[in-house]
Write a structure and sequence with these properties.
Layout: H1 7-19, H2 24-32, H3 36-49, H4 63-92
Keywords: Coiled coil
Coiled coil: 61-88
Protein name: Transposase
Length: 94
């Protein structure tokens, strides 16, 4: 069961939950094939530190590289939020 997940998978799993909250944490974790407690832990790590711990990887060459990675995540999240708003506007505009 010691299945290692990369950082992108963890971020995608959290985003999946954010996009499908109606399923709840357990439903999303089940759909993704991971444990409920695993998804809960990943969400907490991201919320508390703004980053997710990845065993054996995720080492950045410098603080600058770490900041670039954080900014890329932030940009991706902002783009996702913008897409949701665009869809909502198109639905409400009808």
């Amino acid at each position: 069961m010691a299945k290692q997940h990369d950082k992108q998978f963890k971020l995608d799993a959290i985003q999946y939950y954010e996009d499908h909250k109606e399923l709840g944490l357990r439903g999303c974790a089940n759909n993704l094939g991971i444990g409920y407690s695993t998804l809960t832990k990943w969400r907490k790590e991201l919320r508390d530190s703004g980053d997710i711990v990845v065993r054996g990887s995720g080492n950045y060459e410098s603080d600058e590289q770490k900041e670039i990675a954080r900014l890329r995540r932030e940009l991706r999240d902002t783009k996702d939020a913008l897409d949701v708003l665009k869809k909502a506007i198109s639905i409400l505009g009808k």
